[in-house]
């Protein structure tokens, strides 16, 4: 059989799955029969990851031993990348801290006229955004409180109507010749009321109260 790349993707994936299972089996047998320590890492053409490691060790120990024997540092390039990333993040952090201090009116000695004008413009734009947000919040809260007040007033009116329907009937005595009418005209007709019992209140019927015995002023 000629060893070359299988062009058909389906056949290539089937062959990879079969050969992978065979390699894993051989690695397990080699570990048991020869007491060997090995680590096997595979990536398919589609990026699927597979690995095998002897039960008596782990992948990191295998890599550490490989570095000791070969003298190759596997982590130097990764460590260098991490250091570069850390330095870049430190620079960004320092820049942001300096901008915060400048917006607080500090650390302005090294700035030129152009930089100061740019800082002033940025602060004006930020102030406009803050004011717009503040007015929006105030408007929203005002509308909410107006709705609550309207609902409370409507509830209050409904309760008053229910109370008037269930209890007494109040009326103004407008006869100026009577004692009630004279007192009402003297104090204002809206401040004197006479009380009349409802037919549904038999306890108040026939109790002997005169026209001036029970009043609300």
TrEMBL record:
A Gene Ontology term for the protein's cellular component: nucleus
GO biological process, one term: positive regulation of transcription by RNA polymerase II
Pfam family, one: K-box
Subcellular location: Nucleus
Superkingdom as given in the UniProt entry: Eukaryota
Main location: nucleus
Cell inner membrane in keyword set: no
Residues of the K-box domain: 79-169
GO terms of molecular function: DNA-binding transcription factor activity; protein dimerization activity; RNA polymerase II transcription regulatory region sequence-specific DNA binding
Keyword Transmembrane helix attached: no
Positions of the MADS-box domain: 1-56
Alphabetically ordered keywords of this record: DNA-binding, Nucleus, Transcription, Transcription regulation
Protein's UniProt name: MADS-box protein-like protein
Organism: Cymbidium goeringii
